[in-house]
Design goal:
Helix content: 25-40%
CATH architecture of the largest domain: 3-Layer(aba) Sandwich
Structural class: alpha/beta
Mean pLDDT: 95
CATH class of the largest domain: Alpha Beta
Number of strands: 17
CATH superfamily of the largest domain: Type I PLP-dependent aspartate aminotransferase-like (Major domain)
Low-confidence stretches: none
Radius of gyration: 23 Å
Largest sheet: 7 strands, mixed
Shape: globular
Length: 479
């Protein structure tokens, strides 16, 4: 196929060239009477490109994407990878069916379980006590779970994690296929992986059957631009489209489709060189920061650590705990003092998501920010939360997530021993510390309350102060 083509962008351009006028959607008439304030902030061009009829060109753009990366099909979505994940999950599982799920998943997966009424069998991540982070589960863990639960309908993994550590997708795919079930991979951070050999192996190339990717994370798409990649014969593509039709908007944004279209064309034409230059800049930055003795920068040595099979060098994970500071405080310091927004702060580190759009000037600014932090660190202004061993946060699944979510509830100040009726997901990365149907223990309550006091962002709890928690009023045992 001619990878120079951009069907969606061409359709938008053709509409404007033909001097068409619409008495249909969108009602803003391509910004015809846009006020100056909106034009100055949002740009008039954004409204002029909001051509809803351009969605007719999406099928061709999807074919070009699938051809570019070696997938059987590509399906574009415009409601973010949350809806992509809902779609994929509803395609491979359903009411009462078991699915093996990586417990380190994003909250959208838990929402998918609630929508589907599926029964999760949790795959516990590997706990790195030295770094106090969770790595993906190992292939041996998957094999054991499949042995214990022969009625599992699908396997779901998230890789790489927010910290850049990746699972052995190839081995896990073989295990799933030997069991006769599809492998679904949340690869939200990996849309650029197929375009450079020094990045982690793309899940679709490693044998996954369905892959969800976000185009706005490390790539060139607008926010909410996402896609689902399909490979193999274990997933019915018609089912996939039908499930998407249940969930998605009938008025998708051509801007989002166009940004995916443009990303694919650029990656095919310039991706290897762009990513070469990016990796060079990032490696230089990592070496520079590595000379600061009070910082610990994650590097390729993490590969081989327990279950870590691959590592994404575009995730800059910097441990700041030797400064006596938490990552939450450093995240705020970077924002307030340096006008730099980092992706993630946790109890002891900050993580920056780096992309091919980050110039030498931008990375110089980031390096100087860390150097200034080390030279003149602020006084600690909050207690750093103690992070319990992951084993203490491995909670009992006492009820099906859907049943718990829709059960009669009450708010209690001490939820220990009670069954949760809500998700509480420190963000980012949005991985629930507790989810509907799990039983609270003292460790998770203490961790969440201490984290909130230290600066952890928790956007989805019923009580934002965490003085109370939402629990099931009358629990019913699982199974």
């Amino acid at each position: 196929m001619d990878q120079r083509k951009t069907p969606v962008l061409d359709a938008i351009e053709q509409f404007r060239r033909d001097d068409r006028y619409t008495f249909a959607l969108p009602g803003h008439r391509l910004g015809l009477t846009l006020d100056d304030r909106a034009a100055s902030v949002l740009s008039r061009g954004a409204f002029e490109a909001d051509v809803i009829t351009a969605k007719a060109a999406v099928s061709e753009a999807e074919e070009l994407m699938a051809d570019a990366i070696g997938a059987k099909q590509a399906v574009f979505t415009t409601c973010g990878s949350t809806v992509s994940m809902h779609t994929a999950m509803l395609t491979v599982t359903g009411p009462g069916r078991k699915i093996l799920v990586d417990r380190n998943v994003h909250k959208s997966v838990v929402a998918s379980l609630i929508l589907a009424g599926a029964e999760p069998v949790w795959l516990r991540p590997r706990w790195d006590a030295e770094n106090q982070i969770a790595h993906p589960a190992a292939a041996d863990d998957v094999a054991e779970a499949l042995r214990l639960h022969p009625d599992i309908s699908a396997v779901l993994m998230i890789t790489p994690t927010e910290y850049g550590t990746g699972a052995d997708v190839r081995s896990i795919a073989r295990l799933a296929h030997r069991h006769g079930v599809p492998l679904l991979v949340d690869e939200a951070w990996g849309a650029h992986f197929p375009f450079h050999p020094d990045l982690p192996t793309s899940a679709i190339h490693a044998g996954a059957d369905l892959v969800v990717q976000s185009l706005h994370k490390a790539d060139g798409g607008l926010c909410q631009a996402s896609m689902i990649l399909l490979c193999g014969d274990l997933v019915d593509p018609v089912d996939l489209r039908l499930r998407l039709d249940l969930l998605t908007t009938t008025s998708p944004s051509a801007l989002l489709y166009g940004s995916i279209d443009a990303f694919r064309r650029r990656m095919v034409a310039d991706g290897p060189q762009l990513l070469d230059d990016t990796l060079r800049r990032v490696n230089h930055l990592r070496v520079r920061l590595g000379k600061l003795s009070d910082l610990t920068v994650m590097d390729e040595l993490i590969v081989g650590h327990d279950s870590v099979a691959e590592w994404d060098p575009l995730k800059l994970s910097v441990d700041v705990s030797r400064l006596g500071l938490s990552g939450y405080q450093v995240k705020d310091w970077m924002e307030e003092r340096r006008r730099i927004t980092v992706q993630l702060g946790d109890a002891r580190r900050v993580v920056c998501s780096l992309t091919y759009s980050d110039t030498d000037i931008a990375l110089e600014r980031l390096a100087e920010g860390f150097e200034n932090l080390v030279a003149e660190p602020p006084a600690p202004d909050r207690p750093a939360p103690a992070v319990p061993p992951l084993e203490e946060l491995n909670l009992e699944q006492a009820m099906n997530p859907r049943e718990a979510y829709f059960a009669p509830t009450e708010q209690v100040t001490d939820p220990t021993g009670r069954v949760a009726a809500e998700m509480i997901s420190p963000y980012p990365p949005g991985v629930p510390a507790i989810l509907p149907g799990e039983r609270f223990n003292e460790a998770v309550v203490d961790y969440l309350r201490a984290g909130l006091a230290a600066g952890m962002t928790i956007p989805d709890s019923a009580d934002p102060s965490l003085r109370t928690f939402r629990v099931v009023r009358h629990e019913r045992a699982i199974g």
